[in-house]
Amino acid sequence: MRLNSLAVLLIFSAASITTKTPAQGYLKGDFHQHTTYTDGSYTIGHMMSKNNEFGLDWWANSEHGGGSERNGRVSGSETGTAVTEYWDEYKPNPIIGTSVISDGHQVMWRWQVLRDSSFSEVMKARSLYPSKTILQSLEFNIPGHEHGSLGIINNQFDVSPNCNPLAEFEYKFDNSDEDLTGGLAQGWIKSTLTGHAKALEALTWLKTHYPTSSYLVIAHPERYPQTTRGYSIAAIREMNSAAPDICFGFESIPGHHRETTRPRGLYETTSVGGGTYGGAGIYSAKIGGVWDALLTEGRRFWLFSNSDSHSKVGDFYPGEYQKNYTYTTGKSAQNIVDGLRSGNTWVVTGDLIDSLIYTVEPVGTEKMNVSMGSRLNITAGKAVKITIRARDPQTNNFNSYSNYKNPTLNHIDIIQGKIIGILAPSSPDYKKDTVSTTSVIARFDANGNITGTNGLLSKKWKFSGNGWVEMSLIIPNITNSTYFRLRGTNHGLAVPNETDGDGNPLPDILMEPNDATKAFADLWFYSNPVFVYTSSTSNNN
What domains sit in the chain, N to C, each tagged with a CATH number? Predict the structure, then answer.
């Protein structure tokens, strides 16, 4: 007879957790990863150790809602044993709620796993890695769509910590949670809506109860066709409008970059865009695509990238290949959520760069610059100065798959788009997912004078030592509100199967079959935008 595992879970007191708040700056994070609590291969303890090993400052355990049969705390391939322990094998059976059998075993609903098991492992990890900030989160099965990284930090860092708000949300709104009784016994009322309307209801609930301490970042938005679980631009607009301070971005640079038997990122030919482009989905990779259409409205909607790590069969560990660099004023969970919401995040693969300082300021006005996610107000007709400092590390990255361990930054593009204001749902452009007013306006590289097929001539950046490069650009006579964002890569222009003659990423299907070596040879970074509003624009986005 097995002991009830819930009775022997280790509970760590808040007093055992050491918190350290560093000076403000960019923190490296990943908020989408899996363990044996759902469909990952490794225990949560193993995955937590890898987050730490690959240098992340914060991370979140975010796994599918719904239910699972195995005790993820003790079932994992890194243990060297094939033994899997199932919840219904314990005596007495600890599972609460509606009984559903899957693969011969009873499902424990995710809300209970969060409340009674997974969160205690997060608490354990906090004690093991006291300088890190570790969140319990959820990969929300969004009704009418696919997935999203969902966080509610309330209660998690209290004197008597718990993740009950997150568990309640999962029971009420997750599209795969079929429990009708267990959550009800906790006093939770399950939503009766379906599809996209339920997704909007969930966002409204978050805005009502957790307006500043929750987030929903749409995961791998291009992976499924828009007609089957996918995300049209109209759906994204509606979700962002329903809760703009909660649904504020997407993971358009997906995980799964180590895949060999399936396409990179698990983006099949049926995915929107037919696959990834330089590791990014078409929504962010295409200039003038979905992301630019959203930014053209002035929407504060940001780009993120996460590992979505499940196993070493097709994935890199968190921090091994992808990182989000988010500016925060401290290292608390609230600091991190505030940082994500602010838009002051840039994303990178393969540690192509490890520092980015990107600001925009009015010409002739010192110390009035703003950075990513911020808004600069100027008088129409005035000029602005864009200043960029980036550091190409002079040390090896985490590539253990080839000898290409210290990639070189080839060039940085400045991308500009027009801001026209929020579109009404009745607008004929509301469902349109492209804009023609966004383009690359400048390119900087080590030599300068390299011409793309569109005639754009590159400018030479300045080397300032220790891998740092510096560049600036003055944009004169700004008459209409606009935004600027950056991208950079280790590729030059017209690299066979990698970039076109203007440096845009080509479809990754051209490099199939994919593997870890190819992923580490194809590296990019993207910044989030800076908005510049002129006095002639009456929009308050």
Answer: 31-285+301-342 (3.20.20.140), 352-541 (2.60.40.10)
